[in-house]
Design brief:
single chain; alpha+beta; eight-stranded mixed beta sheet; 18 strands; 40% helix
Length: 429
Amino acid sequence: MIDLAHLRRDPAWFTKAFKERGAKVDIDGLLALDSQVRELKTAAEALKFSVNSASKEIGIKSKAGAGAEAISSAKEHARQLGDQAKATDERRAVLEKQLNDQLLLIPNPCQASVPIGVDSKDNRVVSTWGDAPTFAFTPKPHWDLGPALGILDFERASKLSGSGFVALRGAGARLNRALISWFLDLHTNQHGYTELAPPYLVQSQMMVGTGQLPKFADQFYVCRDDDLVLIPTAEVPVTNLHAGEILNLEDLPVRYTAHTPCFRREAGAAGVGTRGMTRVHQFDKVEVVWLTTPERSDQDLLTLRGHAEILLQQLGLHYRVLELCTGDTGFSSCHTYDLEVWSPGTKTWLEVSSCSTFGDFQARRAGLRYRTEKGGKPVFLHTLNGSALALPRCLIALMETYQQQDGSLTIPAVLRPYVGGLDKIGTST
């Protein structure tokens, strides 16, 4: 959520920022509504003060032996003031909810360093790593490789759940599990993350806290009878773990990693890059989340991004880093780097990680604060997160990169200890 005090001080800055984002925001309307709320709050407080004064006056008149008519008149005056105070406060509450509802639909302004652009065509390639693999044969896409090896089953998954699902079998399921375990081990053993195993269902307010709701309500699976939502990413429960809390400066940064399944309806995405398991409704992902201070959050974003890149490098996968432009940056983010891995079978780049800093945008929504000193006033911290990494696209790139002419798959050396020493998936495995 944006800082209303900042909006009042510098509406021109927000006007420019939202224009660069391609977002239509009625700044004047917001400020007018905010002004009404503050005026009503002041009026209600003044009336409440008058009610207290009028109540005291009743007591004074009673002690002074004033007549019944005078006391009755004083009580009526106090009652009328009380009614006015209540009506004013109720009106303030209605308008304040309207203001809050509007604020929840407003995106996070991007940082000044973010390249200005309209859509993904304007994203900036920051770096690339490795070379695209070459083959002495025509490489196959994963939707041909997997079924031929008996490790991916699209038909039976569709029978179970409809389109947009995949079942991993045998060595495929084991390889997927190996990737998850290796990701988590690297993060916890080498990068100092604390592993979490959070719930997969959260209350809708948690989705509001990280910015998925109310803006993107059509994208998620909801258990309406229980006010629970299946998480679209571990970002939601992990970022909200300390919602409403005040942390101490010496405890920051807090760094968590978690593996969860992710559930997304992908409304409106049918037919857009959906073949095979490129875009599915349920998938596994290992997430990393930071709670940090404003002073170090920019550098922390680069560190977080580096942790995701190390995984791709050790897997030997060709990838590139994109800095997203203003028009392609996600709703809650103010600066994002995407990691895209090369898919030899489809000759396309696949996003396997989105590393973002949100400034204090999520912290304001979730009530995440810290004290800069003992007894000091709590201030909002900064949140960051990134996929490190997302499956099944990482699995797609691995399968297509390490395919052999005989149809088998070579397993990268770093994963072999996690698959019982297996070095190949093929007809003999």
